[in-house]
Write a structure and sequence with these properties.
The complex is a heterodimer. In chain A, strand 1 and strand 2 form a beta hairpin. Chain A contains 13 helices and two strands; from the N terminus they run αααββαααααααααα. Chain A is mainly alpha-helical. In chain A, helix 5 runs antiparallel to helix 6. Chain A starts with a helix and ends with a helix. Chain B is an all-alpha fold. Chain B is 81% helix and 0% strand. Chain B contains eight helices and no strands. The longest helix of chain B is centred in the last third of the chain and has 28 residues. The N and C termini of chain B lie far apart (63 Å). The model of chain B has no long low-confidence stretch (mean pLDDT 82). The interface between A and B is medium-sized, with 26 and 25 residues.
């Protein structure tokens, strides 16, 4: 009984800390993105609120909360309110199975630095994030707006197509480590990172992860130049902010999965494991922002052709090669 | 105790959502309730120690197939009458649905009563499954004992894909 109670309290604390840190990172990620892009374009970015705009996220948050909340006439009200929630909750849930560090012991009690280690780890992440697409589709549909609907249709097709190659690109790593649990996958990278053994898998993962999170150069669902703002055209105030949060939470999730699967997770010399994990994740996120300020957007037919005719066959080929090598060695 | 409580809650949510799928007039709402039905079914699978099936259920049914359903409903461009639900003129539809539904319930009922409640305990109890690993066990069975049905299913899907491509191509040529 006491054991169960301790377990419960520990889990609740872990969830609180992880989600709290996650939300803080999301808030400051927006500031980081604005700053990095500004400096890449020889601008300064936000400078007014606090030192170098450091308090900008708080100002933005307050502004968004106090803005008028508009629901368009003839919109499907329940679905319109539900859509941002459906987008955000799965994005925050996926972080639950990612290990941040080695087991530590406090007061003689060993604590795993992961909220829960389920034996189907990566399948859990893929399943939960695949539900997130409904936020985009239903949000676009319920707005009763042509641009929103077009954005929603584009994104649903895009996300289903790239989900396939995303899942297939990870199978090579799973074949080598013989486990779906993320803790085991980190453990089997004690000698070398899987990015060395699976360079092709990592390349496919990186491309499809960018497409899955609807980021540039795959940001067709919200292509400003043609669709106003895509699926969230009609959204205002905190509902808009929830869509924004979902996007950044997804970036963090795919970066964390990339670190866990290809860059040895929390493993690293000298510094504590959690710090290593955060450094690696920050570099992955920087890569996302870097891409956004570098590349133009894909055309829609190019996107579909690339996904189905190049990425998917290459991902299958990667599995075939990995299987052959494992059998021959 | 906790498990049976969870089962009761999720089971009633599943049934309620399944009923809503049938009784909702707007097809989009029906589809949303169908998604919820799929997700609650996944929770029931977890309670049965079938985590792999649960994840696949959410990933394939809730995450991919239902997206296509909603996609198609949105593209069909529903009229006002469709959204509010119209009385349809097919008079034989309701009685035949009731009769066929009754036959289905009786069939599933007898099969379940004969196999599940009176069967002997099989080789794979929850303890052995958790020892070997759920995913590993499913993979092993699919590629040894059930390899023939598994491969037949893949050929069936392949044929369906080719059929869909030919139907789509035909329309383009005609235009």
């Amino acid at each position: 009984m006491i054991e169960a109670l301790i377990f419960l309290v520990l889990t609740i604390i872990k969830i609180g800390v992880v989600v709290g840190v996650l939300l803080l990172i999301i808030a400051y990620l927006i500031w980081v993105e604005r700053k990095v892009i500004a400096h890449m374009q020889v601008r300064l970015g936000p400078m007014r609120v606090g030192w170098h705009g450091l308090l900008q996220p708080i100002a933005d948050g307050l502004k968004l909360i106090f803005k008028e909340d508009i629901i368009p006439a003839r919109a499907s009200k329940v679905v319109f309110v539900l859509a941002p929630v459906i987008a955000t909750v799965p994005a925050l849930m996926a972080i639950a199975v990612i290990p941040f560090g080695d087991t530590i012991s406090i007061f003689g009690k060993s604590i795993d630095m992961v909220i829960t280690d389920v034996n189907i780890g990566i399948l859990f992440i893929l399943a939960v994030t695949s539900v997130g697409v409904y936020g985009v589709i239903l949000g676009g549909w319920s707005s009763n707006n042509k641009y929103s609907l077009l954005g929603a249709l584009r994104s649903s097709a895009q996300m289903i197509s790239y989900e396939l190659s995303l899942g297939l690109s990870l199978i090579g790593v799973i074949m080598i480590s013989q486990s779906l649990s993320l803790v085991d996958i980190v453990d089997s990278q004690a000698k070398y990172w899987f990015v060395i053994l699976q360079p092709l898998g990592f390349l496919i993962y990186a491309i499809s992860a960018i497409a899955e999170t609807n980021r540039c150069p795959f940001d067709l669902p919200e292509a400003e130049t043609e669709l106003v703002a895509g699926f969230h055209t009609e959204y205002s105030s905190m509902k808009f902010a929830l869509f924004f949060m979902a996007e950044y939470a997804n970036i963090i999730t795919v970066s964390a999965v990339a670190v866990t699967f290809f860059f040895g997770g929390w493993r690293g010399p000298y510094l504590p494991p959690v710090v290593w994990f955060l450094i690696k994740m920050a570099l992955c996120i920087f890569f996302f922002i870097w891409l956004r300020s570098t590349y133009p957007r894909f055309r829609y037919d190019q996107l579909m052709k690339f996904g189905w005719k190049i990425l998917l066959p290459v991902a299958l080929l990667n599995i075939l090669i990995t299987g052959l090598v494992i059998i021959l060695l | 105790m906790l498990e049976s409580l969870l089962f009761l809650i999720m089971g009633s949510i599943t049934i309620a959502c399944a009923l809503c799928v049938v009784f909702q007039k707007n097809p989009i709402y029906s589809a949303i309730f169908l998604i919820q039905t799929m997700v609650s079914l996944a929770v029931l699978y977890v309670l049965l120690h079938a985590q792999f099936i649960a994840a696949i259920q959410v990933m394939i049914y809730a995450g991919a197939i239902m997206v296509l359903f909603i996609f198609v409903i949105m593209l069909l461009n529903l009229s006002k009458a469709d959204e509010e639900g119209e009385r349809d003129n097919l008079f034989f539809q309701k009685p035949s649905a009731i009769i066929l539904g009754f036959i289905l319930v009786v069939m599933i009922g007898t099969v379940t009563l004969k196999t599940v409640f009176q069967g002997v305990k099989g080789e794979y109890t929850p303890e052995t499954i958790s020892q070997i690993g759920n995913t590993q066990l499913v993979g092993k069975m699919l590629f040894t004992k059930y390899v023939f049905p598994f491969e037949i299913a893949s050929i069936l899907l392949f044929a369906a894909i080719i059929g869909a491509i030919i139907l789509a191509k035909k329309r383009i040529i005609e235009d």
